[in-house]
Structure to design on (654 residues):
């Protein structure tokens, strides 16, 4: 019997975040066969970050006992405004990037075709493709992490709009004149519920003399706080953290009601690091507030749920993109 | 030479507003051959309003020396959540309507096919069809009047979403915890820039002792104030009215930036009674604020302008609907 020829039918999906780079190796059937993680280090500048992405991809492939020759393509989601056609990252406030040629630089380093998209567009695509059995026509994904972003699926396809920038829901102003956002505006959804804004609010309250178990857990300067620490604090009965998280959940519910009023999606999927860590605490408030603020008739039979893909939504969607583009 | 046979190729477009009913008789080429106007009187209840719509249509047709037999169909836009398939008005806060069977009741009174839609969806469709020479793929219409609403055109078609309710941009919360809206929520776009909210803010300032020429123009109780009065007051150098209108323009700019960030349309058309009356005062602020708040890259080459259809956008779009549905 002839030996089975080595398949080169793999793709790599990359999720480029403000904090970490995650790369996953996938089969064409979207089965993940291996993952790798590396810190982003955006403070070292775009070139270094792109080299780190390349390293993260190469190590992921090697870890799976594969070679780059067996990879058909790489999909990558970046946190900001991405021109998917040219492969440029137009604006990514959490990386400090403006007009960075991600696709071409990464293609040179890997010698593989690279396909770029906004990170949360890909998260939405990942949820749509692997998590939903009956495919809705119109779906919305909302992802809360270091940044806050969304992905819009209309008629079963990722909707990108005229400038290919649609889905920037994190910079929807919902509290005009409110806290300053990384984008420079005031009162954006992201400035109210993004990870940094939650941490900042907790730190400010602590400076103002309020008490929290987080200082016992992490030290008085609250360095290296993570979303999971907030969950642990709430489980220990911490009222300060509970209030901050509940406020964030309420703002998220208002933002989702806005999007339901505007879009009328059938499905609203939530995800991202904050939801992964705090779904139990946040989801009931998010859903109740969203239904409360949605106009009568607009949220009928609309399903609002937390994705179970967790941290893998981004790499899964990036793999879907790479599969579709290399077929 | 044989006499030209009487054509029955007309349609009627109706714009049902919180204050007035406007009906226009149109040819299939969307030329308006006559119009009629009647006050809505929503306080008398839905049945009376629907009878008034019927009367307004009949008088418009008669005024054009036509008969109802020459009308192929009637399109009507209602201010709220409309289920275009069943023809029911699900929720229209400015009329006080919930779940009213507009289509069937009006069809009985007129003995003509009636097609319903959300009013501002039809305004957007009207602008798209008759005002734009090169048709954009993705367009957004935002209309400020008694209520505030929008219409979304994606891939050249009116986008209505899963519950057929898309485009309710007036109830996008942009100032959480802000002024109360007719829908019951706080801080909606409509609660900040709708006609009633502008009038209310002016009246409150006057009660607080601030001065305005409006009291000289309209009497101290400011009864029967109209959008045009605000323009006249600003032209007379009235600082109070100018501030209220400028604030409204800024909120409108923020709302439009939100929609550009979310949707990435190619065209944003503004209209409605407030824009018709105050375009010169508001549009520069709206455009500047929208471009300021839109994420870099999202508003590139996006055209933001005030529709010149004015009050006729609604009846024109309703006529487009009737033409399309009866072809």
């Amino acid at each position: 019997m002839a030996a089975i020829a080595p398949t080169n039918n793999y793709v790599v999906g990359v999720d480029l975040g403000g904090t970490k780079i995650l790369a996953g190796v996938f089969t064409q059937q979207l089965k993940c066969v291996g993952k790798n993680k590396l810190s982003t280090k955006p403070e070292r500048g775009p070139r270094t970050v792109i080299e780190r992405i390349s390293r993260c991809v190469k190590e992921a492939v090697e870890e799976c006992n594969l070679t780059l020759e067996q990879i058909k393509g790489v999909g990558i989601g970046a946190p900001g405004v991405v021109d998917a056609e040219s492969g440029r990252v137009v604006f990514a406030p959490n990386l400090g990037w403006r007009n960075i040629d991600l696709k071409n630089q990464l293609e040179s380093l890997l010698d593989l075709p690279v396909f770029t998209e906004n990170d949360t567009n890909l998260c939405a695509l990942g949820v749509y493709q692997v998590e939903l059995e009956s495919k809705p026509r119109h779906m919305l994904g909302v992802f809360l992490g270091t940044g806050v972003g969304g992905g819009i699926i209309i008629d079963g396809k990722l909707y990108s709009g005229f400038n290919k920038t649609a889905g920037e829901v994190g910079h929807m102003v919902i509290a005009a004149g409110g806290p300053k956002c990384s984008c420079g505006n005031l009162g954006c959804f992201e400035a109210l519920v993004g990870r940094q804004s939650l941490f900042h609010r907790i730190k400010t309250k602590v400076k103002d003399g309020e008490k929290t178990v987080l200082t016992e857990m992490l030290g008085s300067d609250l360095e290296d706080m993570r979303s999971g620490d907030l969950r642990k604090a709430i489980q220990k009965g911490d009222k300060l953290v509970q209030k901050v998280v509940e406020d964030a959940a309420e703002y998220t519910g208002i933002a989702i009601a806005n999007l339901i009023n505007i879009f009328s999606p059938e499905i609203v999927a939530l995800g991202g690091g904050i939801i992964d860590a705090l779904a139990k605490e946040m989801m009931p408030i998010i859903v109740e507030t969203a239904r409360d603020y949605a106009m009568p008739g607009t949220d009928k039979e609309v399903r609002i749920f937390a994705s179970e893909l967790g941290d893998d939504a981004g790499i899964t969607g990036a793999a879907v993109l790479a599969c579709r583009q290399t077929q």
Remarks:
- The domain at 136-307 of chain A is CATH 3.30.420.40 (Nucleotidyltransferase; domain 5).
- Chain A touches chain B through 53 residues (CB under 8 Å).
- The longest helix of chain A spans residues 239-263.
